[in-house]
C-alpha cells in the first residue's frame, strides 16, 4: 500500500461544531445556518444564558423553518407562544417544544438556560415522512402542536448532541446530521399519531448495500465524508440509510467511519514509516491530537505505543 504525503492544512482556528446564538432562536449567518440554497440541511445552534439576572427575549418566527427547542438543563422561565402563555415555572431537562414557521414567541428567562435549537426546513420534514410512511405527504408538513413533549429517547439524542466534541468537519458533521435526523423523524412520527409507525423496526440494510458503503468509504477515507455522501452511495435518503445501517451492523454510520479510519491507521502503522501526522491526515483526521484521542479510545493504547508493541512482536 502506498500513502500520499499530505502537508498540514493551512486552516484558520476551528469553529465549534454547534454554533452559539447571538440572539435567541436566531441561527445567524454562519455556514451552519439554514439558507435557501441549503434547503435539505438541519441547522443546529445552542442558546446559553448564565442567569446572572432575568432576561427577556422574543422572536417573530423562523420563516419557512420549524424551530425545535430541546432543553438541556432544568430551568425556570415564562414562555409565550403565538400570544398565549404556554409555560410559567420550572421546565425539566429533556423537554422538547416545537414552533411552526412564522410563529411569534417570547420568553422571560428567570434562571440559567442551556437549550439546543434545530431549524428544520420543509424538505427534511418531507424526507422523514416519506421514509416513515413510504408515501409523499400532500402539501407542506406543519408540526403545529406547541405543547411541551417529554420523551426519554429525545432527551438522550439531545444530550448526545450537546456533548459532541468531535473535531473535524467530516466526522462531526456526520454525527450531528445523524442525531438531528433521528430527532426530527421521531417528532414527525409523533405528530401523525401513528403508534404502529413509531414502534416499527426498520428493515436491515441488505449486504449488497453494505458492500457499497464499504467500497465508498475505503475509496474516500482521507476526505470529508458526510452522512449524505454515504447514503447516496447506497441510493437511499440519509434517514432511511442511517436506520437500516444500524439495524444491519449494530453501529451508527459515524461509529463505522471511525472504525474504518482506525483500521486503516493500524495498517499504515504496521507497514509504513510515515510520521504520525501523515498517518492521521491520510486517514481523514484533521489533527494528530484528535487521531491519538480516538485511537486510544478504540484500541486501548496510543498509536505510538501500539505501533511499538506490534512491530516488536512481528
UniProtKB/TrEMBL annotation:
GO terms for molecular function: DNA-binding transcription factor activity; sequence-specific DNA binding. This is AraC family transcriptional regulator. Keywords: DNA-binding, Transcription, Transcription regulation. Gene3D superfamilies: Homeodomain-like (1.10.10.60). The keyword Ligase does not apply. It comes from the Bacteria. The keyword Signal does not apply. Residues 211-309 form the HTH araC/xylS-type domain. InterPro entries: AraC_XylS_family_regulators, Homeodomain-like_sf, HTH_AraC, HTH_AraC-typ_CS, Tscrpt_reg_AraC-type_HTH.
Amino acid at each position: 500500500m502506498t500513502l500520499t504525503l499530505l502537508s498540514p492544512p493551512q486552516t484558520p482556528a476551528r469553529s465549534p461544531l454547534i454554533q452559539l446564538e447571538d440572539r435567541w432562536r436566531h441561527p445567524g449567518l454562519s455556514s451552519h445556518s439554514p439558507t435557501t440554497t441549503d434547503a435539505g440541511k438541519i441547522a443546529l445552534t445552542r442558546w446559553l444564558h448564565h442567569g446572572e439576572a432575568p432576561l427577556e427575549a422574543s422572536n417573530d418566527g423562523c420563516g419557512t423553518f420549524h424551530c425545535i427547542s430541546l432543553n438541556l438543563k432544568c430551568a425556570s422561565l415564562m414562555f409565550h407562544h403565538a400570544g398565549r402563555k404556554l409555560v410559567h415555572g420550572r421546565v425539566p431537562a429533556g423537554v422538547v417544544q416545537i414552533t411552526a414557521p412564522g410563529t411569534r414567541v417570547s420568553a422571560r428567562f428567570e434562571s440559567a438556560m442551556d437549550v439546543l435549537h434545530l431549524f428544520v426546513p420543509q424538505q427534511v420534514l418531507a424526507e422523514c415522512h416519506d421514509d416513515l410512511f413510504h408515501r409523499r405527504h400532500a402539501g407542506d408538513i406543519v408540526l403545529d402542536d406547541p405543547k411541551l413533549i417529554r420523551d426519554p429517547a429525545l432527551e438522550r439524542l439531545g444530550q448526545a448532541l450537546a456533548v459532541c466534541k468531535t473535531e473535524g468537519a467530516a466526522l462531526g458533521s456526520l454525527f450531528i446530521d445523524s442525531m438531528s435526523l433521528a430527532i426530527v423523524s421521531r417528532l414527525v412520527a409523533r405528530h401523525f399519531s401513528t403508534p404502529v409507525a413509531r414502534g416499527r423496526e426498520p428493515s436491515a440494510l441488505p449486504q449488497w448495500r453494505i458492500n457499497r458503503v464499504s467500497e465508498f468509504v475505503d475509496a474516500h477515507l482521507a476526505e470529508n465524508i458526510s452522512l449524505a455522501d454515504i447514503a447516496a452511495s447506497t441510493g437511499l435518503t440519509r434517514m432511511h440509510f442511517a436506520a437500516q445501517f444500524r439495524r444491519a451492523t449494530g453501529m451508527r454510520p459515524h461509529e463505522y467511519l471511525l472504525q474504518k479510519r482506525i483500521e486503516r491507521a493500524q495498517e499504515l502503522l504496521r507497514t509504513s514509516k510515515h510520521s504520525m501526522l501523515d498517518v492521521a491526515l491520510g486517514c481523514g483526521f484533521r489533527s494528530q491530537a484528535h487521531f491519538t484521542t480516538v485511537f486510544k479510545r478504540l484500541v486501548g493504547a496510543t498509536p505510538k505505543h501500539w505501533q511499538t508493541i506490534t512491530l516488536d512482536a512481528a
